[in-house]
User: Fold these one by one.
Assistant:
Number 1:
Amino acid sequence: MAANTYLTGIKPTGDFHLGNYVGAIKPALAAAEGYDTFYFIADYHALNIIKDADELRQSIRSGAATWLACGLDPERTVFYRQSSIPETFELTTILSTLTPKGLMNRAHAYKAARDRNTEAGIAELDSGINMGLYNYPVLMAADILIMEGERVPVGRDQSQHIEYTADIAGYFNHRYGDSYSFPVPKGVIDDSEASILPGTDGRKMSKSYDNHIPLFLPEKKLRKAINRIPTDSTPVEDPKDPDTSIPFQLLTHFADAEKVADVRQRLEAGGMGWGDLKKELFEAVNTELGPKRERYEELMASETELDEILDSGLERARSRARRVLGDVRAAIGID
Ligand code: ADP
Ligand code: TRP
């Protein structure tokens, strides 16, 4: 068994924003340093949300290009599409036969969908909920277990799914462990408040709050988006509290420590206006993201480069998946 396999799935739905970059992409790429890593585009998970073929195609390309542009090195990380690994879907069927239905009834995403029906006064609480949503945790467990994933970098919102995967691995190991055992995976989750990037209104940056700044906005639009972040009317010469300022909090994630300390000092002393702070923020974000934006655009413009990269990860991923599924089939008696 390979030691310390890091694995994560990237759900390609909608454009990525600065919060995804700070909270998901950067930490997952940093976690991968020095380990055996498998990162994939979770396209069948996205199918739960996107039912338009062209839109799905475009989202898959954009998700892959985003991670590559942000520094995922396909030579070192096995990078592939979930849909290219048929073994995952066979394992999903096998794991479903061991997973109690009650576990799925308690899944957060499913419960939230039922709660929305309750609030809307809809009597049939499962109305509008399909089996894709209901089975989502089993598919996610199969994604992880088919590669013998041991460490799974994810956001806090995914922690229940990792616990479910550990439970499902446990059911299998309990029944068939004499023949084959899955490693029981653990999440790599940053729980600190400091890792949450605020949006333009101060709440957590999120597509659903419409307070986000897209990751690869063209330079001019990025400058505008930063200038539009609301600030109070404290005059330029007055001292200001950096810790209650949204642009300053954003700056701490993009500028180096020296710059952050310098800006903090200037705000506290008075004489630095919000406009100056926003200029510093724009410079810091644009310096970090400018080259990545260029690479993203290059990848999106090429007809073939993305497919070539994704195809190159495929053999390495499938050979692991074939071996694991072979062991699982032998263990359960389907030879
Ligand atoms: P959204 O809330 O915009 O729909 P997603 O749920 O698609 O974002 O986020 C995908 C991942 O990106 C999450 O699991 C989380 O790790 C990370 N993430 C999203 N928003 C933020 C944020 N504001 N700060 C830090 N990390 C975030
Ligand atoms: N469910 C994850 C999300 O919504 C994406 C995902 C699918 C995933 N399969 C995975 C993450 C396996 C980690 C491991 O973001």
Number 2:
Amino acid sequence: MHLRLFINIDHVATIRQARRALEPDPVQAAALCEDAGADGITAHLREDRRHIQDLDVDRLKATLRTPFNLELACTDEMVAIAERLAPHHVTFVPERREEITTEGGLDVTREPERLEAAVRRLKAAGIATSFFIDPVPMMVERSHWMGADAVELHTGRYAERPDDDRSLRALHDAARQAAALGLAVHAGHGLTTANVGAVAAIPEIEELNIGHTIVSNAIYVGIAAAVRTMRAAMDAGRPT
Ligand code: PXP
């Protein structure tokens, strides 16, 4: 199975917002990622609009040639934006204003009615849904139970300690469990060319979302080369 690479372009907007200027433009960066072989583009419209802005998601929707994965907190405002925009899929993520980045997975046992209702609304609008969860059995099971089409497994713990077998085993087990339940399996957070191989090797994983390291490497080598280098690292780890 082809392992899809979705590039998260939030931090192109982070640099722009540092000056409240017009550049760098995340939409232009997204097009360059597509040209370089990205299979899709991911953006997180945060409630505090600290990087991606409403106009960015409108322009992404209008111009992307590949699927658009919109990351959102599960709030009425964000679900309404998703319904209007109709991205290819929505990934629900936890959001806390004081966090630097998305820290843990979504606790799908909290406010299950809210999540279930959001999934139903988006499904009615023809939008697939995914939950960004820690790789633990209960979260996988509940995601399935609530009607999500996919789970995105949080790879942050593995990325922090790639030599700790337990975090990699948890990803393997959660991926197998999710696939057996009929969920599509995505993964991401903290992945780099150095650690992506072992995650790419998990056969049930269909899609990776990678952001920070791509924008970082873009400063040194340009965004197209950063995407291509990541693609090569994924391919090197994937069993053929
Ligand atoms: N997946 C989700 C749900 C995220 O919130 C993020 C970070 O915005 C990523 C993937 C990408 O993580 P990173 O920027 O560390 O590659």
Number 3:
Amino acid sequence: MRLRARVLDPVSVDEARYLPDALVEVDPAGRLTLVEPWSGGPCDEDLRPGLLTPGFVDAHLHFPQTRIVGAASGPLLEWLRTRTFPEEARFAQADHARAVAEQFTASLAAAGTTLCQAYGSVHPLAAELLFQALDARGLRAIAGPVLMDQGAPDELLLPAGPALDALEALAERWHGHDGRLQVAVIPRFALSCTMPMMQAAGQLARRRGLWVSTHLSENGEECSATTSLFQAADYLSVYEQAGLLHERSIYAHCIHLSDSEWDRFAGSGAAVAHCPDSNDFLGSGGMPLRSVLDRDIPLALGSDIAAGRSFRIPRIASSAFDNALRQGQRTSPARWFWTATRGGALALQQPQVGALQPGLEADMVLHSLPEWVEDPQDVLNTLLFHQDAPPVLRTWVRGRTVSQR
Ligand code: GUN
Ligand code: ZN
């Protein structure tokens, strides 16, 4: 497949490359073979003035919250109790889970997200249906059910034994499937898990090479409840004690950490899923970006649907820019384009995607950019910061169309 289009590609954390007229060639296996200035010859489709970018990476969101986007005003624990848990209880019903899984995967693809790290509800069957929907849509994902054996309504609790058995069976079917799907062990957050379950979950992840993902230090009330429940010196030590902090783990939010916690986090090789829109909407606080950058901690962006309000990762990037500004740090737009694409892919250890470079797999998004936006900096600014910007026209994963307007 030979496509002609404008191209914007992340080169490094502070550089994006703009090609105003380019050839993008993809082989039948879905691998990029050429990305270079247009120099004539045949093409299958001329997509100009459309702009091709790599697909976006959403490193943290919740599939069973798809239908409560916008409901998250109020502090975390109250929102979980009043809006989130009642909605997630509905995922005991297969028909509901199946319908929302279809809506969720369609929403991701329509937003230009090609790789995500998605939390399910506690129900193993709902997680199975999520994997089926991700597979049918052709997306790339790391996903799993959440684990909860305390601190939530009874109907949402599942003891460690059956929960981990079901998770292992899920991993048997889906971990590594088609090189696109991986399974995560997701103790939801410390308040909803007993220490024995977290420890068993950590062992399962190690034994099967699964991802670990959870929420960390999001809300002040959550932090003090956690340290008092576990009689811990700090929040991170709870996950350390459970064996959950290592180079295949990803932690959402990471707002209220001490320097000691940041140092230990950095030493572990774990990644941060930065969810700035959710942090604003729930009033959780600002993620201290400098603590991450100074320590070279792997960083990705998360929409955190439904505490976050949009599936569109450029909106989350825009929010990340604002968050940094509030902390006195003027970041470059190129940094957020990188984090939304290649940086996010690397943080999720998917080096085969995230940029439009020969040899990588062709996960791409076509944006309907007006032809009068021509200056490279304006192209980048419009993509990230123009919140009424024209929508995504088409999304591909491995060269295959997964969404088209
Ligand atoms: N902490 C525990 N569960 C959740 C959740 O569903 N959303 C967010 N933002 N934080 C959480
Ligand atoms: Zn979350």
Number 4:
Amino acid sequence: MSDKINLNSLSQIIKDEIDKFDHKIDTASVGQVVSIGDNIATIYGLDEAMYGELIEFPNNTFGIVMNIEEDSLGVAIFEGDAEIKEGDICHRTNRVVSVPVGDALLGRVVNALGQPIDGKGKIDCREERAVELVAPQIMDRQSINAPLETGIKAIDSMIPIGKGQRELIIGDRQTGKTALAIDTIINQKGKNVICVYCSIGQKNSSLAHIVDRLKRTDSLNYTTIVSSGASEACSMQYIAPYAAISMAEHWMYQGKDVLIVFDDLSKHAVAYRTLLLLLRRSPGREAYPGDIFYLHSRLLERSCRLSDDLGGGSITALPIVETLAGDISAYIPTNIISITDGQLFLNTDMFNEGQRPAIDSNLSVSRVGSAAQTKVMKKVSKNLRMALANYREMLDFSRFGSDLDKSTRKVLAHGAVLLETLKQKQYKPYPTSREAVEIFVSQSGILDDVKIENVYPIFKLLYNTIQAQDPSIYETIDKSDTFDQEAQNKVLEFVKSIKVNFQTTERE
Ligand code: ATP
Ligand code: MG
């Protein structure tokens, strides 16, 4: 009997003890790692964590909340997931991922979190900006009315880009996509445009080459490079373009003009797909997650031209997309084509034939930029696309037989000169005046009887002659946007006198 009393009291004691036990662990802001692998941690706890919040792990490792489920969280770790073990405790930070912003970033190479990776020491930025922010509203924007000069003849004449525009550069691998973007950055020297180059999933050696080029052309001092290499975690590659555009936005809201390049968004889409498949989200078309369109639209919508009330700053975006065998109707290319204001299509065949930059004028468009084209450029390049289209049509036709009538031969000769004029060396952007003069000369037909290989030397001589004898022709075009009849006649006279030293052909 006494045994029973003892047992009863014992169980009572245990019950009392259990009741008194304060079992409340703070699961609101503390969590525990349940599993870890492939840079993805599954966390128990952290009940109040927000989507996109930064989570702190031991050893100064951080991650971002990507999945919120009923009783667990999926966190993508940025770097150093090898340090994290199952059972580790992690904490909320109560802030979303943000990057340092400001002028101290100019001339620097940083990773997706804004940390320097160029070995030049600490970056002294006073402000930070969240990487994910809502794009400016419609009323905060104004239409595009100023040109962004790329210095590339084929673009400025036929597919002009305006400040605040989003123009896609699309083409197969090794067709000069990066080259176009880098030349555009080089051309912004002295034009008060800040540049941000965001490299996603590229080899470190390619990036080193780009940094070196920018340095040698004195373009690095107004450029920030945000890089997340192919060897970095998918989460870093995923966040890199958002980090880059946040840095750009800071300048835009100060009323400055910014040019941003995303090189490239195909690799970004692949990194995002990898990340979400590891987080066990269901795959959709081509195994991309369902929100892949939103991934890029919310990024590209952040570039715009702000209204004058907000300072009139702008972000011009040049996203790059790689195609396979010229297929622009694949999933990611069509998505991004529909988000942007036009595309520069680079044609592999043209590139291999030596027509570089290989801009295909048939498939390239700029839906808003022509409103911002300079008067002179608009005038001299008016018939250019049409003449090229005619040329291409005749060329296909002429392959059937050798007897061509005079008018066909004329179109072919003229088109060949136009195409030759649009060729341009890499890293050699031209001022608008030089572009306009060359396009005017080739459009005038005066070079149609010149051997094709002589077109470039004639233009080179013409440039030197004008510089030496009448530089005001260039100055008036650049400064007051006029190229009057008198100046045009002078240019044609120069060409005539240069031409006599070059052999002409029977092409006409
Ligand atoms: P990837 O798909 O590998 O990123 P890409 O499309 O970015 O390639 P680039 O790296 O820019 O292509 O250029 C490919 C090659 O073509 C480079 O060797 C580059 O020097 C050369 N190239 C690009 N543009 C020109 C040009 N206008 N004139 C001569 N060579 C050029
Ligand atoms: Mg490239």
